[in-house]
Design a protein that fits this description.
elongated; 2 domains; 3 helices; mainly alpha
Length: 83
Amino acid sequence: MEVQFVHSDYPDRFILEVELEDLAKQEDLLTANHVVKRLEFRGDDIQLEGRPFPLETYGNMMLTALLALLVAFYMDRIFLKSV
């Protein structure tokens, strides 16, 4: 197994810049901007590129909410019919 340094291609940059840019590409810009803000990162050379909106995250949340509403509606219909 060979050791690979994360920022070996960018020796003049801070190590977190490369990681945050990779996070923006893998996830989305909102997540990367949130991490930059929470870490209080003040690098000037960071350039975040990626999807602007986390569609998968909000899509899963909306599907879960829809499923919960359908289950609640179905259970309500069952219990109201038996009364």
